[in-house]
């Protein structure tokens, strides 16, 4: 062992002891006759002190540079000027033996909580970035969350089963990453987009509570903060109904919030998909704040305002305490909603002044009583600002939802240390896709229709709801799942609805449908996105900051430079040729 | 919830309660007026009873078949004929409500501890195989071992960090599985053979204790019981020496044996590679039993026995209590060593009889005193049988090692419930490969030479030892690791010795060598093979039995039929063409 203690361990109680520390040189203050060095390791910082009583070692210390790895032995002494910001701030080490374990070039950015390194540079030298407290603490936090999850679920009787990574390509949904087989030329494995079918087979196999923290892979065109490989807390249960799953994972989430933040949360509210869309324009509502949608369509039409009269939907929110916004501020909001990313055509506002009067951009068409009605519908109180968007229902909802989030951001209502989970339930089974002119599975093709809706499958498939549910935390979907189909005929019908031919269905999912014929129990499950869960529990939003070695937006690891070319011999062994 | 209790929960205390159970029909005994059904789930078996008091339900029960999934509600009553072999054997459920949750075709093999299904069939229907207690219990056992490992290491301050699966091909050692990149045509990711370089980068990043239970991938021609994907308990530590690593993971192994088998093991013996080869002819010696090699070369040569006189090595073992073996038995052993898989040319035996006399196959050349000396060298006692092989040193060691294991097997000395760990240390750094006429890394290219041997690197690289170590349990390598190089120049030199050009070294490992320039701490680590560890801790040897969904020896998943062809569209998107 190169140390007797870590750099976070020593305090006044250790004064007089001789200790050995190892770590990185964080900072050097050379005062001539005395040199102070902040020595850093994973556990903290301890001050080393060198003085003229030992000139040889003082000179050695002078040769050190930032991020040198050193070992220092000496006596723990009381500091003359204490630092009460760190646990070791009462002491320092009077060094009498110094050993350089490794030298270091000057790092390309500072190893400080606030670094001068940009994203690109930090990713290239991720191993240096990880030395910084914010990144290091995120990794430690993630490790702790994983452990809490595993132990909680083990306590609930879940078995951690590893499912295979080399499986078969079933490119429904996203694109698969594939792995050419050398031993079976022309054949490919695929990396799992999720262990979905395997966990269902475990249910058929009688493992009635399964969990796994597992990597999943999707070859998608990457958006900001999407990773080609990501981690799921993947779970499945048998002989249960939706209620049991919701209770189990609500229990897990409460446990995490209690252990991590000391919070005792009440039972999570539940809201149907339909209600979430109506009230928040969004199936992952952030309910830390209000600004629930008011439907002004009836109230606002037929009053001579042509813009409104010809729209499908007129929706408004009451922004709390914002009646005092200036013209300039409101113009800025108007510009914001008109940006192509949002796409609204315009914005109508109504100031509900503190004295009960109204001032709106549509005063010409609406009188006081009209606006009183608008205030009632949107829940506005004196002092609030009502913002109204109109257009076709779906895009207007999306636009107003974005505006709601933006206003909450501006008003500081999205508090990272406040946690407001909500279950969104009763998702539609299918989603119509205009482009491909067919239905897609809203959750995935293994989700069961609600028994009471199943009769609509042949006539009005778009109306069929599923026992599918999302757990939403602070406006982010952190988990989702469903009750699954466990009947061969129903699974075949579902795949048919999704446009699979019988042959395709059999090639891709025949093994699962076969399994359903040998006594498949009723089952269902849920998966949490661990990367996002950890980020949100950590009070942050960027998942990349909670991944040790993330890929960039082009799917590249810029540190190791992957992907990369492979040798012609490798290609030949795989019976592959690269085309232009 | 489809049940109030599991099928393993009820006993005499529950008599009189009304309960609901769900599970699979294990067995039906139709006695006409009464039907008994064994209902099975993950937790056990409970007897359901149907009788003529409720004729309707009796008739329903009559329609059930093996492996039907049912839900049964009824009263817990005392059994007339108790079954003391199962925890629920005192009671049965008098069923008054029965619901078929799913039907089942007759399974292709019996769902019993001893099944009539062959390996191939069981793999194709693995979901049915998993219903069998032996497989199910193995999976539960594996889950438990993983949890024990994680919690022990977390308690020791290890951080669980997920390293990436989409990395870069560095095909030193085994072949990589590669993953074509759609977004970067002609470029490939590779799946990790181990997270070796990433865990070293975590050390450079200051995460001084890292652990991960992680899948690794090797595209090798599969031997029996090798899997293309396998699981490692992967660990790395900084600011440590070999001694610290050995102590840490000896602690982990003791913890596992204590928690699983209630065993309190003494400190593990340590043996050098050289000594292991000399005493056991093997770097993974099974030390549950003796039969240590005796080197008879000096003692047996120059006595007129030509066969021995011209050999490099004459090695013997004393098989305890086997002096009474018949001529026929010894002939059988002789045939065994002469099989091509072993390859010995012949076998010399010496019976050390209980009365102190000797009887050998070479009595013509060796007198009583000679054989007394042989007995001393091999440690034989009266009643033992000395078996002697000769030839070139290396193959003779290998052959005698195999014979030693075979004799132990025959004598029942390889007891699955006895655990004899041993550390094998001081491995050579390099291994000469005759075929490629160059050195290979015995452990891997990142292993550091012992500082005291480093001066031999230029002159006698084959003589350089490494601080590399294996943990061997019952004749199986369950873990191995080394102290790593943390210096750029040394790493470059090592890659040079292994035949890398500077350009290749830079392309494949440049990122690691760059990292070493920014303050890399001394570090080292170890990885356990989880599949094998779990099998051995479970008193078994076939790792496939401890993997939920294993591949067969051709690397195929015969259940899902992977690998498989992919669509022309997928190939085109990947810019690939399949060649003949």
The CATH class label of the largest domain in chain A is Alpha Beta
Tell me what portion of residues of chain A adopts beta-strand conformation: 15-25%
Q: Structural class of the helix and strand makeup of chain A?
A: alpha+beta
Q: How far apart lie the N and C ends of chain A?
A: 55 Å
The shape of chain A is globular
Can you give a write-up of this model?
Two copies of one chain form a homodimer. By secondary structure, the first copy, chain A, is of the alpha+beta class. Chain A folds into three domains: 12-102, OB fold (Dihydrolipoamide Acetyltransferase, E2P) (Beta Barrel); 173-270 and 422-546, Bira Bifunctional Protein, Domain 2 (BirA Bifunctional Protein, domain 2, 2-Layer Sandwich), CATH 3.30.930.10; 289-413, Gyrase A, domain 2 (2-Layer Sandwich), CATH 3.30.1360.30. Chain A has helices at residues 55-62, 119-124, 126-129, 133-155, 196-204, 242-261, 273-280, 297-300, 306-309, 327-338, 368-378, 393-410, 488-497, 502-516, 530-537, 568-573; strands at residues 18-30, 34-41, 44-51, 69-78, 91-102, 159-160, 178-180, 188-190, 209-217, 229-238, 270-272, 294-295, 313-319, 348-352, 358-360, 385-391, 421-425, 430-433, 438-441, 468-473, 476-483, 523-529, 576-578. In chain A, the strands form five sheets. The first copy, chain A, has an eight-stranded mixed β-sheet, with helices on both faces. In chain A, strands 1-2-3-5-4 form a five-stranded mixed β-barrel. Chain A has a five-stranded antiparallel β-sheet with strand order 12-13-16-14-15. In chain A, α4 packs across α6. The radius of gyration of chain A is 30 Å and the shape is globular. The two termini of chain A are 55 Å apart. In chain A, 48% of the residues are buried. At the A-B interface, α3, α4, β6, β7 and β8 of A face α3, α4, β6, β7 and β8 of B. β23 (576-578) of chain A pairs antiparallel with β23 of chain B.
């Amino acid at each position: 062992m190169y140390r007797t203690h870590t750099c976070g361990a020593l305090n006044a109680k250790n004064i007089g002891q001789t200790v050995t520390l190892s770590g990185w040189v964080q900072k050097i203050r050379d005062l001539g006759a005395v040199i102070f060095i902040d020595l850093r390791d994973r556990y903290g910082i301890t001050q080393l002190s060198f003085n003229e009583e030992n000139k040889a070692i003082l000179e050695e210390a002078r040769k050190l540079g930032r991020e040198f790895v050193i070992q220092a032995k000496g006596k723990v002494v009381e500091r003359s000027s204490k630092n009460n910001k760190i646990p070791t701030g009462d002491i320092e080490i009077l060094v009498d033996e110094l050993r350089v374990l490794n030298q270091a070039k000057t790092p390309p950015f500072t190893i400080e909580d606030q670094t001068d390194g940009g994203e690109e540079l930090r990713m290239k030298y991720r191993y240096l970035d990880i030395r910084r407290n914010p990144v290091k603490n995120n990794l430690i936090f993630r490790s702790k969350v994983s452990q809490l999850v595993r132990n909680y679920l083990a306590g609930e009787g879940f078995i951690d089963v590893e499912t295979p990574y080399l499986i078969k390509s079933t490119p429904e949904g996203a694109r698969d990453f594939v792995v050419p087989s050398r031993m079976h030329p022309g054949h490919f494995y695929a990396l799992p987009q999720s262990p979905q079918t395997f966990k269902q087979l475990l249910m058929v196999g009688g493992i009635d509570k399964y969990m796994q923290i597992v990597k999943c892979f999707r070859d998608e065109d990457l958006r900001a903060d999407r990773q080609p490989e990501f981690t799921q807390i993947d779970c499945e249960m048998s002989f249960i109904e939706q209620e049991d799953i919701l209770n189990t994972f609500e229990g897990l989430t409460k446990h995490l919030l209690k252990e991590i933040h000391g919070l005792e949360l009440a039972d999570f509210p539940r809201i149907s998909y339909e209600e979430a869309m109506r009230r928040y324009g969004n199936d992952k509502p952030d309910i830390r704040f209000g600004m629930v949608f008011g439907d002004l369509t009836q109230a606002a039409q037929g009053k001579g305002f042509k813009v409104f009269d010809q729209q499908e939907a007129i929706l408004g929110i009451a922004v709390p305490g914002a009646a005092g916004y200036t013209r300039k501020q409101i113009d800025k909001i108007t510009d914001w909603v008109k940006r192509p990313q949002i796409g609204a055509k315009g914005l109508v506002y109504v100031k509900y002044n503190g004295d009960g009067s109204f001032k709106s951009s549509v005063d010409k068409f609406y009188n006081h009583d009209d606006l009183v009605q608008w205030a009632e519908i949107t829940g506005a109180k004196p002092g609030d600002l009502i913002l109204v968007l109109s257009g076709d229902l779906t895009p207007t909802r999306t636009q107003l939802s974005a505006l709601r989030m933006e206003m909450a951001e501006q008003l500081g209502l999205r508090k990272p240390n406040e946690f407001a989970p909500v279950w969104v339930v009763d998702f539609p089974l299918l989603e119509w896709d205009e482009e491909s002119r067919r239905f897609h599975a809203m959750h995935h093709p293994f989700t069961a229709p609600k028994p009471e809706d199943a009769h609509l499958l042949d006539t009005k498939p778009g109306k069929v709801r599923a026992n599918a549910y999302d757990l939403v935390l602070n406006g982010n979907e952190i988990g989702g799942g469903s009750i699954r189909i466990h009947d061969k005929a129903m699974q075949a019908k579902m795949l048919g609805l999704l446009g699979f031919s019988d042959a395709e269905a059999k090639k891709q999912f025949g093994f699962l449908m076969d399994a359903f014929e040998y006594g498949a129990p009723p089952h269902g499950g849920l998966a949490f996105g661990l990367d996002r869960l950890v980020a949100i529990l950590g009070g942050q939003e960027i998942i990349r900051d909670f991944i040790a070695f993330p890929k960039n937006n082009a799917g590249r690891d810029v540190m190791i430079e992957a992907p990369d070319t492979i040798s012609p011999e490798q290609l030949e062994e795989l019976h592959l040729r690269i085309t232009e």
